[in-house]
Amino acid sequence: MGLYMLHHRQGFLKICQLPEAYNYDNYWPVQKIPLHGTPHQVTYYAEQSLYPLIVSVPVVRPLNQVLSIMADQDLVHHMDNDATSADDLQKTYTVEEFEVRVLELEKPSGRWETRSTIPMQSFENALTVRIVTLHNTTTKENETLMAIGTAYVQGEDVAARGRVLLFSFTKSENSQNLVTEVYSKESKGAVSAVASLQGHLLIAAGPKITLSKWTGSELTAVAFYDAPLHVVSLNIVKNFVLFGDIHKSVYFLSWKEQGSQLTLLAKDFGSLDCFATEFLIDGSTLNLAVSDSDKNLQIFYYAPKMVESWKGQKLLSRAEFHVGAHLTKFMRLQMLPAPGLASEKTNRFALLFGTLDGGIGCIAPIDELTFRRLQSLQRKLVDAVPHVCGLNPRSFRQFKSNGKAHRPGPDNIIDFELLAHYEMLSLEEQLDIAQQIGTTRAQILSNFADISLGTSFL
After folding, report:
1. Is 49 exposed, middle or buried (0-12, 13-18, 19+ CB in 10 A)?
2. What PANTHER family does its record include (predicted)?
3. How far is residue 50's CA from residue 42's CA, in Å, rounded to a whole number?
4. Do 243 and 278 meet the contact criterion of CB atoms below 8 Å apart?
5. Distance CA 453, CA 69 (A)
6. pLDDT at res. 26
7. Which of 10, 163, 167, 427 measures 20 to 30 Å from 390, CA to CA?
8. Per-residue pLDDT for 5 more than 80?
9. Which residues are paired to 296 by β-bridges?
10. SS3 assignment, position 456
């Protein structure tokens, strides 16, 4: 039942109970939220503690109704007279109907309540939902809106199109309509990603990226950029834009208010099927992280003064690592202060990521001295720790190109999953390995504690 006793400083003995909605037989307390559908993407609105969530629900429909929506009437009439019998048209077909739900956690009870539901149109899939801050050029004030990007799925014979939807939030808690639609416009191509850039709205629709200003009722385009094939992710830091293409790796852009230009700074000339991208900030150093379809993680940087960058046109590789799982989302979080990590770089961020097989991981920057020490430890542990099923961890973490041309990048990522085995060795082995790499066991354990403290987000 989860009872525990708490002794109050005034002399009272209180008997308390943990919330029953959580399952405590896990690494962290877990609460399963019944959606009766498939969740696709979630974002957070901090001002009102709301969670907009894209959900799809399977719905059974008559086949003739599905065909009439997906194709034009002439084609349906031709199918009726040609190859489709009356019995076939009486069959049913399961389609996914999408909607965006706005959830809120009721703090006293710990239950999740659906505050609002935004249904999509027939055969319209919601692809992305984001909370954006736009500058209203009419009122000269900033507005926080919910932006939704959609795509109509009507078969390969119909040209791709989608919609951009903007919703405002109601301040009053007693209002029946929590969100109100303030803008809706159809676009050519599927709207796969949206983001706010210095008060403007950045929209990725198929291969085209459009930057628009907000007038309070309309979006007016002010800048464009043509991507190679299809944009899968957008990330913003100050006036810099990072986007990933579905087959053509990552591109690094800058936005200049004067002249209204989206300018390409550099790109990766390799062929990479991007899954997710994000900026990795280490003090004043800006790194670009990308995950791909071969379960790799790569980190690039922009160095226009280096000869290898082809006068700044090419992004250079800082590190690469085979995770062994598809990374679909990065979350940039500021690292927590730790005594051993204190340095001149106070503006340090780590990337928390989720994988398709249900895993959670983290990648974080560390200082040069700690990296060299732990890298030497890692090389010793490759031989000191028994390999699982005889699999060499050094070989497993090498970049997997799956037959594609790839130039190996620098080995600048430490595998903390391997380093964690150091504490499981006997005391004699720990002391011996520490002596071999020119350090002490206490120093190694101190580095472990600092890294764990700096990335203790959960």
Report:
1. exposed
2. DNA REPAIR/RNA PROCESSING CPSF FAMILY
3. 10
4. no
5. 55
6. 83
7. 427
8. no
9. 322
10. coil
pLDDT tens, 433-447?
Answer: 999 999 999 999 999
Q: Where are the beta strands (DSSP E) in 170-293?
A: 179-188, 191-197, 200-205, 208-214, 219-226, 231-237, 240-245, 250-256, 261-267, 274-282, 285-292
Q: What is the pLDDT of residues 277-290, one digit of tens each?
A: 999 999 899 999 99
Query: Any long-range contacts for 297-306 (C-beta under 8 Å, 24+ apart)?
Result: 297/321, 297/322, 297/323, 297/327, 297/363, 297/413, 298/272, 298/399, 298/409, 299/412, 299/413, 300/250, 300/252, 300/268, 302/252, 302/265, 302/266, 304/265, 304/266
**Are the CB atoms for 259 and 248 separated by under 8 Å?**
no
| Residue 131: half-sphere exposure toward Cβ, Cα within 13 Å | 16
Q: Taking Cα atoms as reference points, which of 122, 106, 123, 126 lies closest to residue 114?
A: 106
Structure tokens at 156: 């390969």
Q: 312-330: buried (b, 16+ CB within 10 Å) or exposed (e) per residue?
A: eebbbbbbbbbbebbbebb
d(CA 398, CA 411): 9
The rounded distance, in Å, linking the Cα atoms of 124 and 323 is 34
Instruction: Establish how many alpha carbons lie within 13 A of residue 7's alpha carbon, considering only the half-sphere containing its beta carbon.
Output: 2
Q: Give the pLDDT confidence of 395-430 residue by residue, as tens digits.
A: 999 999 988 888 889 999 999 999 999 999 999 999
Backbone angles phi, psi at 418, to 5 degrees: -75, -40
pLDDT confidence of residue 389: 83
Q: Is the separation of the CB atoms in 296 and 400 below 8 Å?
A: yes
Q: Which two tokens stand for residue 360?
A: 């959670």
CA atoms of 458 and 438, how far apart (whole Å)? 34
